[in-house]
Amino acid sequence: MIALALLLAVVLVAPNYAAKFLFPLKYKEHVLKYSDINGLDPFLVFAVIKAESGFNPRAVSGKNARGLMQIAEKTGEWGAKKLMLENYTPDSLYDPETNIRIGCWYIGVLMKEFGNNADLVLAAYNGGSGNVSGWLKNKDYSDTGDRLDRIPFKETEDFVKRVKSYYSVYKNLYANERLKSGP
Question: Which in 104, 115, 137, 141 has the greatest CB count within 10 A?
């Protein structure tokens, strides 16, 4: 009861502090570095990490996706090969820098594939790029063929909504902070 009262007091007295506690910039150095390399908005990467793992580098999904950005083993191996990472093993995905590096690379690949359409990229990140490409060709899911009117996987639909919501919070909460990698 005391802890709840203390938390409520912090939220009321210092709402910005409380919000930053709930939406941290953990692993900022890695996120900024690999976002920059891959031409990504770092707030989007922070939102994906928050949605995927809640910033837990040891997180494992029911499908054995691992680490901060919940990278599947197959995607991790593909990314490690493309990025020429030496001594890569699936357990490397528990290393925050490796996970963020591969995750940002993969989001960059999806951005190119889906014309920088964040909704399609997020749907592909969660539900698979092959599925998204198929949905775009199906009138039940896309009237235009370039955006999704409906996502048939509930988990993917919820993921896209959650990441977009978190992204909005990150952008508003840290709008006045200069996020840059390097000096």
Answer: 104
